[in-house]
Amino acid sequence: MSLGTLKFSALLFGMLKMLRHKARRHSAFAQRLAEKNFTAQIRTFEGDVGRYFSFRDGRIDSKSGLHPDPQITVSIASAELGARLFTPWVEQLERIEAMKNFDFKAEGPDELVVWFTQTLAMMQTVGLEYGTAMPDGTKRFVTNTNGGPLFVYVKDDRIVRLTPIEFGEGDAGPWTIKARGRSFTPPRKTSVAPHTLCSKSTVYSPHRLLHPMKRVDFDPKGERNPRNRGVSGYVRISWDEALDLVASEIKRVKTEHGQGAIIANHGSHHTWGNIGYYISAAYKFFNAIGTTRVIHNPDSWEGWYWGAMHHYGYSMRLGQTETYSLVEDLMKEAEMVVFWSADPECTSGSYSAFEGTPRRQWLKDLGIEIVHIDPYYNHTAALLGGKWFAPKPGTDTAMALAIAWVWINEGTYDKKYVAERSVGFEVWRDYLLGKEDGVPKTPEWQEPETGIAAKDVRALARRWASKKTYLGAGGWGNGHGGACRAATGIQWARALACLLAMQGMGRPGVNFGHLQWGTPIDLHFYFPGYADGGLSGDIENTGMPISLYQRMPQLPTFNPSTQKVPRLRIPEAILEGKTEGYPWNGKTIEGQFQKFSYPAPGHSPIRMFYKYGGASIGTMSETNRYVKAYRTENLEFVVNQSIWFEGEAKFADVILPACTQFERWDISEFGGTGGYALHGQTQMNHRIALMQHKCIEPLGESKSDYQIFLELANRLGLGAYYSEGMNELDWVKRLFDASDLPKHISWPEFLKKGYFVVPAPPEERRDPPALRWFYEGRKKDVPEPHPLPGDYGKQYLEGLQTQSGKFEFECSSLKRFDPDDPERPPIVKYLPSWEGLQTKGLVERYPLQMISPHSRFSYHTLSDGKQSAVNDIEEHRVRIDGYYYWVMRINSEDAKGRGIKQHDLVKVFNDRGAVVCAAQLTERLPRGTVHSYESSAVYDPISEPGNSVDRGGCINQLTPKRSIAAKVTGTAVNSCLVEIERWDGSGALRPAALAVSA
Amino acid sequence: MKKWNLVIDVAQCFNCNACTMACHDEYFGNDFPGVAAEMPRLGHRWIEICQRESGTFPVVEVSYLPVTCNHCDNPPCMKAARDGAIVKRADGIVIIVPEKAKGQRQLVEACPYGAIWWNEEKQLPQAWPFDAHLLDGGWTQTRGAQVCPTRAMRTLHLEDEEMQRIVLEEKLSVLHPEFKTKPRVYYKNLDRWTRVFVAGSLAGEISGVTECIAGARVTLEKNGAKLAEAVTDAYGDFRFGGLEEASGTYIVRVADGRFNPKTLEVALGKSAVLGTIILERRAAG
Description:
By secondary structure, chain A is α/β, with parallel strands linked by helices.
């Protein structure tokens, strides 16, 4: 008998002892053992070592050797391998290697295989203590959300309260920045966004889906009544019925129609976590069953991705520049910050709560001048003050060009930088001076376009040139949101990039930013972001191959379908059977040029829709399209996996109730996204890795997304592949092991305490400031693994990603792609919006331009509706006669002219639809511009869905579906003309005089 | 003994509603006997945030005023209460005792600040109890102060004398001191909420081009007395804040060597935005 044989036999015997021991000590484990009656065999291929385990009503009979008729068999190539694979906390790489080489196999029903392996794994975690007992009898757990980490106080399996995390004595201290003779240190706690602080009211919302449901008039074997989607009610069904139905539909459409027949779409940011979130659990499942992939447009980047990128590269950041150490540089060097379409106090850096807020308060302490350019006097302006310019929406580019004209005319730009670090300036300069079209782009020229007086633009241009100025563009400072999501978004982002280049981007005190990104935290501590793929195994569509795979080997997954549909064109794909798009691809600058078409050659049209999380009706464009797409025979089956009964969940045939992240295990980092927002943690004042404790049991019959996918996978024979035999907590542990956490904190301590604060590096080890290397003509020296080596033109790490390696005022990539594209010429030009206040033929009927930025009080649709506490915030919704209406902001004079008073119910409409809102009269907008946030979770048509006045507040029914430009696929939701009138309570979409032929 | 006080800086409040959400989180779904019965899911905002816009496009200021139970030392609600439904604790906190206040709707009207809410279902008047149960359990600040991202809300546990020293030092005030209720909730920069401004922007011709006139001296006068002086910024803008609403007629005088002096009369109601003031070139010679 070899050593391996002995060891493996002993291990299997030990396993039996351990199973019995754990069952004696932990009632939960004893209950687990009582769940199934069957026999599991573990053996070597040859059968020289084997042991079977018979589970009967919680008892285990086990013997060495081979059982004559086991229900499942786990077999290993050799005893030596078995000994290694069954030692607790096995080497994952070896395990994956064994599976890959077919040396580690399982046979039998998936459900039993997964149950057995999960049960073995549970021995490692059962009884582990987690959470902290508090004096008031509550237990304090930890979680992390897209609005900040939380302490979660729980009593009797109910959440009592949610608070930010205040650091204790054992936690690492903060950094200090010394600037202008003063020292600045952030608070030693985390911040929380209001849309997270209301979570108790959303977890316990009456709108929670607590049971699987089926549409009453949906009969998979008979009449499906697809046209009744959105109208008919639902009946409660069992999980078994629901899962059997969904699994059988998956099989049916695949065998009846072929590859591509299932479309799978996920929302963004409806929960958080590296394991249970969409780029993990959902991707693995959708890859495993083969689905038509929904290609999301880079919807917060748009103009930066399709436009600015061509000037300087940064494709991996989707056209936004690096941000390392820019907080310190701004505080030490800058004299002025221009916030351009930037409201970080509203959008919280997407998922960084209020981490940037105390830093921006330092601007006043440092005496740094502030300018805001935004049609709305936004929350950042309201808090910080400063000079405010309100150009007509979509005309900002004209203002930017005029600023450049002033700099050229007065010679107040960084001529040395432009000469040495850029190419193509002369071409652009000649355009600005009017040599190309006879129109000099002067401040006087821009005045009728923007509504900003020429003298003001001149004053701003001079002030800007005379001071070291940071350009804070969008919510992140280097872009994101706002004006880039408009018909003129590409030119706007491009123009801003060119302005900054003219002033020497990378020079001390001159860069993109407004203190939102670039804190001096330790980026050399490894912890993956959620976009790095979690357990997805997806090495094609996540950050996994460059970030996580080396640390957390796992079974890879590939989607066999190559069929793709742009998210913005799902309705056309379903209703018209044909569409096309340009991809979101951050590998290279040229990635975005690779046009694709639907249907893909040889693929089936979409016949089944698997919708997971989020709600398109409140967040996409011209969203009555999505409603109509659900109400068609073209879709034979619709399943929606949702936490709440809202939005498009009401258009499903079967609804699978998912639980919130408070009810499941996960692990993550505060603001740790990875992927395209690499090092996004520098929005935070502290790096914090967090357990997401399972704080309470899932409400009702709801289950975690992982569990739902696993139970479906079991029915498709994919359970072992999907789960690798592991529970969610095992995956959490696996990710813990993959990170740098074990170097600093033990698993039991981390599990119990729930978080770890990564110490800030000493001052001398801080990363160099972004783009300083470029400004000084050195090799790239920031910790950014991009551009790809092959994307450097001359020498690795020298220069930018562009063809010339320099900032390109005239973009060689656009010249190569299509030099004659009027919407995206090689140099940035001003082209009036195709929908705006100058759009003749439309503005006469719809004279108000609506902008619809991201909401302050709901992260997408996550916190809105649901009878959540945010509904009582008057900036969010207004209660009128017992109904909570969405808010539409309108200039007081515009309102007066329409007989509209404060909080009157108004109908906001255009040819695309009509939405009832509560009017908020304001001086924070110029006349002609109206403002409403997007992201209503509530779609409440008063008549036929898709063709009705909506009381819910989905103002995206009104926004155009048209792409920013013909050769890109981008949303232009901020280019939207509407009219507003007092609502008479009728169901008329628009006045008869404005009726359009359908 | 030390007592509890709350200080709110109006200049730092930007309506994020974190305090209001934290308050909702604390009291919705939770019952704290002797301190507060459960808050309804919807309709109550025990920390309410009022909003004011001052000025007209394109010169606006926005201010926010969080209003909550003032924990008055001379609480009018207590006088209106029956059966000991309201108690004033030795540490300054005023509690509407949920077990005793049922049906006492008159308490809602008794609060001159509108800070008592009526719980229809429970037939109970309710207000923010200063998170007394948490402070009693060792917390050193209220939920709202803990989550306030700008530190606009601070919890102070001090002897009254010490608090009064801070009131003077930081120029704190209370809402409606004329009510003589002696609130324990103090406000910093309350002018942002109560006062109005006069603003304008200077323009004039320089070398044949209309420009913003920076560096010009602008004075604000009333009844012949100079109240304030400002120098226009790079955009030709000036602003005089801290004025009392509807406080009569003011004179704005503009002086810049390059241009003829200009005088404007402002009958001040709410904030006055004078718009662009065109200066005429001083005649040569």
